């Protein structure tokens, strides 16, 4: 039996047992503001009291628009204490997307925290109750600091029940409109204790929270797990201070997405070129010193568990990190299955796979190879979308993930790609782009890849260039890319072989709508912009085309 039945039970225990221990560290203007469990409890209770003072209906939906910061965690606790349901919103969304979620979720209030571009977002907020945090320069509606100064604490906090709806998480939307995934308190507790048990996470460890807390993986692996285990949280102040903030924290667990690992590799290779690194790693004593320094600089000296998720990580990149003493464990999960699906573990790790099914998870493959999941923390359904909810379950109650996969004889799962990502060339042959993209990504000159080919005889690779690639001349870059294609093509089926590489003028990012807030490519959006050019690119004589 878990020690705690709800996240709030856990926080209330730590608040009582270790009131003066540091819970949250928030850097502001180069200085750190610390929140003990006692201070956190007091502020959360006062915000909860303000929410109750709005006379909202019971279990009202309260939105949370903020980057990761101390006030994100405090707000989450306050929403729970008031007996409300949290609606986390990605801090990078534009006004229209913010409005879409607030209206669809029927949010009655919103807490506005740390943001980079709130001026352009606030027109998306309808006429609902607002609380904003002055510390980060916002002053919409009621000020957090005024509430903390004047409001009385909510003495009788809401007692959470396992069946209560705790949150509605809107998917980041790689395809189409985001859907509101409903999860219960019990789902969160099941996931949290599964993670704590799998990764042997001790109480009161240090955690670094930087991936969006609006995403299910960060919310659970860091946010809720941290509350339940009484952890000490740290946050980055900004993108500029990220590396220093992480190095200072040296967390017990570190979770990242593939793009982050690519960026870390770029950073290392920009200061120690690959040839020099290879040479240093061959010298016995120097090898140990180099590995130790690199881990310290990356902030991973004390990291016992290092996890990558959200999208597949290339085999070559995992092996590259292994050479510098960093073992990355790939996992696989979704918002709908509350991330309890498959994982590699320290004593059971097959590189290139996403691991075996987690304890308590039942899986099967459909005749088309789609991965189907059943566990004891599956989502309650999509909010206000019963027909869509019904369509994603099979007759036996298994959730249809939309991903294609293969199991080996030991039960390790490899993701082949999204069912909807498959496309036909004009030869009528289906192609799964993801495995080809992973093979090409071993070239460190490439930042992002999207394999396409609808309406042309052979697929082509649309790519953006990394900082290392941008430092090269066009001639050098072309030579590097052609060499990679020549290495990869022999391993592909005839209809899969890459015919051309097209280098994009600009990067794909959240601002131009071509990646999700978790840095996954929006394949549909990229194709929509470029599909009309596929035929002309294909017919060009040169193998590498600069858009």
Helical content band: 25-40%
Mean pLDDT reading = 93
Number of strands: 27
Name the beta content range: 15-25%
Distance between the termini: 58 Å
CATH topology of the largest domain, which one?
A: Rossmann fold
Question: What class would the helix/strand composition place it in?
Answer: alpha/beta
Shape: globular
**Low-pLDDT segments:** none
Based on the coordinates given, report the CATH architecture of the largest domain. Answer: 3-Layer(aba) Sandwich
Biggest sheet, spatial arrangement of strands: 4-3-5-6-7
Alpha plus pi helix count? 19
CATH class of the largest domain: Alpha Beta
- Taking Cα atoms only, what radius of gyration do you get, to the nearest Å? 24 Å
Compute the number of structural domains: 3
Largest sheet, described in full?
Answer: 5 strands, parallel
Key attributes of the depicted protein:
five-stranded parallel beta sheet; single chain; Rossmann fold; alpha/beta; 19 helices; globular; 35% helix
Write the SSE topology:
Elements (H helix, E strand, L loop, with lengths): L6 H11 L4 E7 L2 E6 H17 L7 E5 L4 H12 L3 E5 L5 H10 L2 E6 L5 H4 L7 E4 L9 E2 H7 L14 E6 L9 E5 H14 L7 E3 L7 H13 L3 E3 L7 H8 L3 E4 L1 H14 L2 H8 L2 H15 L6 E4 L6 H9 L5 E4 L9 E2 L12 E2 L4 E4 L4 E5 L6 E2 L3 H6 L7 E9 L5 E6 L4 E2 L5 E2 L1 H8 L5 E7 L7 E6 L1 H4 L3 H15 L11 E4 L19 H8 L3 H6 L4 E3 L1
Parallel strand pairs: 1-11, 3-4, 3-5, 5-6, 6-7, 10-11, 12-13, 13-14, 25-26, 26-27
Antiparallel strand pairs: 1-2, 8-9, 9-19, 14-15, 15-16, 17-18, 18-20, 20-21, 22-23, 24-25
Helix pairs in contact: 1-2, 2-3, 7-8
């Amino acid at each position: 039996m878990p020690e705690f039945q709800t996240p709030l039970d856990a926080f209330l225990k730590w608040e009582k047992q270790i009131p003066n221990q540091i819970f949250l560290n928030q850097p502001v203007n180069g200085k750190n503001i610390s929140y003990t469990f006692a201070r956190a409890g007091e502020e959360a209770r006062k915000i909860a009291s303000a929410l109750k003072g709005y006379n909202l209906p019971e279990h009202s939906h309260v939105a949370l628009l903020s980057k990761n910061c101390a006030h994100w965690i405090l707000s989450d606790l306050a929403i729970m204490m008031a007996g409300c349901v949290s609606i986390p919103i990605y801090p990078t969304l534009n006004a229209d997307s913010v409005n879409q979620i607030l209206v669809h979720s029927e949010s009655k209030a919103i807490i506005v925290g740390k943001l980079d571009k709130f001026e352009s977002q606030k027109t998306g907020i309808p006429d609902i109750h607002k609380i904003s945090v002055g510390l980060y320069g916002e002053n919409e509606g009621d000020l957090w600091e005024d509430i903390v100064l004047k409001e009385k604490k909510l003495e009788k906090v809401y007692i959470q029940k396992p069946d209560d709806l705790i949150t509605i998480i809107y998917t980041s939307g790689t395809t189409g409109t985001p859907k509101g995934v409903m999860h219960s308190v019990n789902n969160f507790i099941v996931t949290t204790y599964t993670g704590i048990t799998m990764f042997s996470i001790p109480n009161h460890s240090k955690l670094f929270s930087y991936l969006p807390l609006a995403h299910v993986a960060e919310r659970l692996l860091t946010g809720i797990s941290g509350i339940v285990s009484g952890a000490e949280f740290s946050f980055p102040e900004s993108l500029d201070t990220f590396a220093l903030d992480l190095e200072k924290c040296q967390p017990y667990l570190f979770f990242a997405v593939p793009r982050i690992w690519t960026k870390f590799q770029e950073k290392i290779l920009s200061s120690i070129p690959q040839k020099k690194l290879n040479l240093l790693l061959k010298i016995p004593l120097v090898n140990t010193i180099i590995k130790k320094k690199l881990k310290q600089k990356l902030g991973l000296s004390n990291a016992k568990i290092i996890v990558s998720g959200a999208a597949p990580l290339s085999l070559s990149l995992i092996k590259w990190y292994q050479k510098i003493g960093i073992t990355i464990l790939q996992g696989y999960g979704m918002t709908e299955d509350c991330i309890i699906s498959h994982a590699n573990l320290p004593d059971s790790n097959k590189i290139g796979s996403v691991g075996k099914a987690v304890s308590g998870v039942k899986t099967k493959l459909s005749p088309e190879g789609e991965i189907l999941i059943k566990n004891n923390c599956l989502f309650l359904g999509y909010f206000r979308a019963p027909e869509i909810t019904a369509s994603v379950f099979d007759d036996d109650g298994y959730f249809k993930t939309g991903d294609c996969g293969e199991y080996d004889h030991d039960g390790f799962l490899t993701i082949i790609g999204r069912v909807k990502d498959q496309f036909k060339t004009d030869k009528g042959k289906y192609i799964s782009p993801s495995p080809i993209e992973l093979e090409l990504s071993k070239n460190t000159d490439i930042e992002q890849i999207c394999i396409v080919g609808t309406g042309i005889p052979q697929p082509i690779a649309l790519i953006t260039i990394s900082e290392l690639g941008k430092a090269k001349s066009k001639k050098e870059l072309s030579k590097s890319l052609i060499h990679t294609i020549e290495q990869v093509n022999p391993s592909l089926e005839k209809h899969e072989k890459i015919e051309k590489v097209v280098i994009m003028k600009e990067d794909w990012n959240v601002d131009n709508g071509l990646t999700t807030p978790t840095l996954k490519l929006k394949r549909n959006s990229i194709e929509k912009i470029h599909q009309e050019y596929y035929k002309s690119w294909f017919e060009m004589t040169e193998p590498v085309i600069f858009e």
